[in-house]
Amino acid sequence: MTAVPDAIDQALGIAPGSPLHALRALRPEFVSGAEACRAAVLDPEETLDLSPELRRAIARRVVAGAGHDRLTEGYPRPADPALAALADGEMPEDFALAALARHADLIAETPAKAGPEHLSALQEAGFSVPQIIALSELLAFACYQIRVVHGLGLLKETRA
Amino acid sequence: MTDTIPQVTLKPLTWTPHLPPVEIEDATPRQLEAMKVTPSAKKVSPYVRTLAHDPDSYVARTVLFNAIMYAEGGLNRADRELGALGASLINGCKYCANVHARQHARLTGTATTSALYAGRRDALNPRDAAIMDFAEALTATPPTAEQSHVEALRAQGMEDAEIQDLIHSIAIFGWANRLMHPLGHSD
């Protein structure tokens, strides 16, 4: 376990000494694994021309819908107005960002309805295949975080 | 249950990507490393080759996935598979559901998966029913899981360390389903 609280600890508002923190410490590989994933989708070695700000804006859009405020705060609101619109759940005016916003909402809310036409829409908006893969992983990671935070939040009143 | 549910044996499905996967001969050194391609093992699945377009996330997610599904101790393997199956059914990932239903059946027999594929939730044993209820509620967007779901799991003898494992197996399929289903089709 690292001494610094990870993103999930921060989202849960827990610190060393709490029962839930001790529970998480039973699975250090889940903690470190999620942190490595967070780094890989937000600040990867190969950026694929997707900026850290864009990546955080998308993640913020996805997690904001789940109502876990501290999780949302983990993704700072971008200064750039177009990225802020994306992060805020609005429909950006920029064609590519609007396509990305629509895709993010589809994947987060109704993944069962996703089909090949939605990938074509991203390609028509100018995204490359590697970018679409990276964006897919990023969106799905945010959905993973939502469920870990929501589920572990139910174990705050933990029992031995 | 006294009535009998016909036992289902699921056949494996084949997954085909909508987007062109990385071809081994075109792969970068980092992509090859991510796919763990060795000269003696050049056959890599289309799924792995599709995701290898972004080697960073592929490697990190695979490490986390394996920890969640196969870590020693804690929740038994079958219950982790049932969590994965519950998420996959809600998220509409036919391929993932098929794989993890077959894993569950291999570990514990076909009673549970046959009931689920027959739409007979009423025929699940109480532990499996509590796991499925929780998996569905945690998979919903936004999640609707609440304290009563946790109490139901505890009432079936599940300890909090095991519930933590279950949460992660459901959550990691909230991730995997959102790759497998949107990025390809299965038949």
TrEMBL record, chain A:
Domain of life of the source: Bacteria
Gene3D superfamilies in UniProt: AhpD-like
InterPro entries: AhpD-like (IPR029032)
Name this protein carries in UniProt: CMD domain protein
TrEMBL record, chain B:
All copies of domain Carboxymuconolactone decarboxylase-like, residue ranges: 58-103
Domain of life of the native organism: Bacteria
InterPro entries: AhpD-like (IPR029032), AhpD_core (IPR004675), CMD-like (IPR003779), Uncharacterised_peroxidase-rel (IPR010195)
One example GO MF annotation: peroxiredoxin activity
Pfam families hit by this protein: CMD (PF02627)
Protein name: Carboxymuconolactone decarboxylase family protein
